[in-house]
Design brief:
The protein is mainly β. The chain starts with a helix and ends with a strand.
Length: 260
């Protein structure tokens, strides 16, 4: 029993000695590469008015659209207190159902009990410049300024009627935000455990809006690798011509960060 206790104490002391150096080396790295996999629930609305027919608002429930699995990745380059971050994610989902009401979409009338297949795609590219307002071991605060490129599209097909239509939105939305990184436990070896919160977004009036809230727990087993688990909420809305689209994606994700 005594040898096992001694071994446990030695392992703890080794981790305690390494943990502060791990956190410092990780945050001072020039490049962070972040692949992740997101498992959100989808809530969406779409409307398309064309050919003199006013479109009705359709929801993901109306079209029996499944929740997507969303891959994404980001790269951050740090130079002192300055940082530049590029992120991309792509969400795709589809549905197949017999509709329980008659509605107009993209200049066509889909009658009740018609079989309708649907596809929803959203591509989001985010670019942010960040500046460290202050950075200490317990807490770091970074202000961000950037833009979100949003490309969202919904496609409906009624095979029995020979109908097909789509509604889409492409736009650039400016974004301001803040990033908080906290190390709540200063005692090694848990000093390499971090809580992060990233909030960003802005509205451009009736044309569109975008908001993003991302909270996570991050742990560094080695100085060049962080394991991350978190929860993210993204809201997007856009209107273009007779088309209007709005979506919410919210759910947990897992990922890793490689530091160079």
């Amino acid at each position: 029993m005594r040898p096992l206790c001694a071994l446990a104490v030695l392992c703890w002391l080794a981790a305690a000695a390494v943990a502060p150096r791990e956190a410092a080396a990780y945050h001072e790295a020039t490049i962070h590469l972040e692949p992740r996999l997101w498992f959100p629930a989808l809530s969406a609305e779409v409307r398309s008015s064309r050919g003199g027919l006013t479109g009705e608002v359709l929801t993901d429930s109306d079209l029996a659209i499944d929740d997507p699995v969303v891959p994404g990745a980001a790269v951050t380059v740090r130079l002192g207190p300055h940082s530049l971050r590029l992120e991309g994610l792509s969400a795709s989902a589809d549905g197949d159902t017999r509709v329980d009401r008659t509605f107009n979409f993209a200049g066509r009338t889909y009658t009740v009990d018609t079989r309708v297949t649907s596809e929803f795609d959203a591509l989001i590219v985010a670019l942010d410049y960040g500046y460290d307002l202050f950075r200490t071991e317990p807490l770091a605060v970074t202000a961000t300024l950037g833009a979100r490129i949003v490309d969202a599209e919904a496609r409906l097909t009624a095979p029995e009627l020979g109908f097909a239509g789509e509604a889409s939105f492409q736009g650039v939305v400016p974004a301001v935000g803040i990033l908080l990184v906290a190390h709540p436990v200063p005692v090694p070896p848990l000093s390499s455990l971090a809580l992060t919160l990233r909030v960003s977004g802005l509205t451009i009036g009736d044309r569109g809006s975008y908001f993003d809230v991302d909270g996570a727990v991050e742990w560094l087993p080695v100085p060049t690798l962080a394991l991350r688990a978190g929860y993210r909420f993204v809201h997007g809305r856009g209107e273009e011509g007779g088309d209007r689209a709005e979506f919410d994606l919210s759910g947990p994700y897992v990922g890793v960060t490689f530091a160079f």
